[in-house]
Amino acid sequence: MIGDPVRHSRSPAIHNAAFAELGLDFVYVAFPVAAGRAAAALDAVRTLGLAGLNVTMPHKEGAAAACDELTPGAAVLRSVNTVVHRDGRLLGDSTDGPGLVAALREHGVEPTGRRALVLGAGGAARAIVDALGRSGAVVTVAARRPEAGAAAAKLAPDARAVAFADLDAVVPTVDVVVNATPIGMQGEPPPFDPTVLTATQFVYDTVYHPVRTPLLAAAEARGIPHAGGLSMLVHQAALAFTHWTGRDAPLAVMAAAARTGLDP
After folding, report:
1. Known catalytic residue: 60?
2. Tally of domains in the chain
3. Choice among 60, 114, 134, 243 that is catalytic
4. Has residue 263 got a pLDDT over 80?
5. Which long-range contacts (CB under 8 A, 24 or more apart) does 155-158 make?
6. pLDDT digits (tens, 9 = 90+) for 98-123
7. Containing domain of residue 29, as a range?
8. What pLDDT digit, counting tens, does each position of 8-38 carry?
9. Would you say residue 220 lies in a domain?
10. Is residue 264 one of the residues assigned to a domain?
C-alpha cells in the first residue's frame, strides 16, 4: 500500500489475516510515499516483481496515470485504489464504489431502483456515485462546492447535484443516505438536521473510526437501520485480494481483522 499518511491503515491487518487463513505466501505492508511520487512507486512494482498495490491519498489519480491499463470504472474516474501486476503491465482498478455496493447488499439494501443521496464529491464519493449509478440507483450528490457536486453527478445516469444548504429538504425524499466525506471523524455533526431522517431509510457512513459517528448515533436514536464504513473497507479489500491472488477472499476473517483494536 502506498499513501501519505498510511500508519493508521487497517489494510495490512486485513490482508495479512486473509493470506494466513488461505496459507498464501504473500505479505502486505504499508509504504509512506510522498505526494508526486506515485509513478516512481509503480515503477518499483515492475522492478521488484510485486503482485500489486493498494493506493490511497494523495496518489489515486497519479497512480491511474501511471498504469498501463485501467478497468472501465477506473477509466471513467481517472482514479485507482488497486494496482495489479500482470507480466510487466500494470492494471488499475477502483474497488471503493463496488465495495460500498457490496456492503449495502450485505446489510440487506439492494441499490437497484433506490433513491440514494451521496454526501461528498471527493475521490471515494465519486467512486460511490459511479457504482451506485451502475447498480441502477437514482443518485443525488450533495457537496460544499457546487462545481464539484455537478461534476460528480455526471458519473451516474440522471443524477442531480444539490447544495449542503438544501439537505434538510432533500434527505426525507431518499431511501439511502451515504456519507462519503470525513465529516464525523472528529465528532462533527452531520451537515443536516438529523430529525429529518425517516424510519424507512438506510444510513451508511463510510467513516469507520470512530465506529459510532454522530450521524450513526442519530440514526440509532431514531431506530433507523444504519451501518459504518468497516463493511465497505472489507469488501473493497476483498475485491483487491481476488485481483492479486485469484482466490475468493475469506470475508469473515478479514472483517474480524478490521475490527481488532478499534474502539467499540
Report:
1. yes
2. 2
3. 60
4. no
5. 155/76, 155/77, 155/126, 155/129, 155/130, 156/129, 156/130, 156/132, 157/133
6. 999 999 999 999 999 999 999 999 98
7. 2-94+231-259
8. 889 999 999 999 999 999 999 999 999 999 9
9. yes
10. no
